[in-house]
Amino acid sequence: MQLELFSRLTAAAKRAFRPVAPPVSDDPWQEKARALLQAIGCADLAAKVIVRWNARMRSTAGNAYPNKALINLNPRLREFGDEEIDRTLRHELAHLLAHHRAGRRRIAAHGREWRTACEELGLYDEKRCHDLPLPRRRMQRQHLYRCSHCGTEVARARPMRRKCACLACCRAHNRGRYDERFRFIKVTAT
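The chain above was modelled as a monomer; its predicted structure follows.
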């Protein structure tokens, strides 16, 4: 009976496992991304990666979604030439590669793993942010909070939704843990 159950389970597993063919795309940048990943020996990620042009992007050159193996690029990058598109593509690929290698472990967005991935993809001394002349949106900071203990002020564009305390005071007086004594108090809202 157990043998029969085992054989049914293995047969179901064989039917369920089908190699996934990469999505077909006529975008040369998606093919370039796949070729770069294959060249460094990451064929499983290369099979899943998707590169899209997102017309809704304004100030960001690109972004990566590691869960979906998706890279969005700003169409305005085309104004700056293929070299800039290639650099941005490699930057975002480095994010995917770093998260792919880390697995379920949390990593810093532009930390050590990302820098290693950048170097493997041919980007040395890569900066965290681009310096392209894309329009920047500045939000007015209209919510002001003050620590009741030390008087430190924090200006924010959005109101604090949760209880927040002054980190310097919590570190100095409560071993870095949250303490209600050092909670930020709203001063103004213009």
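The chain has a mean pLDDT of 88.
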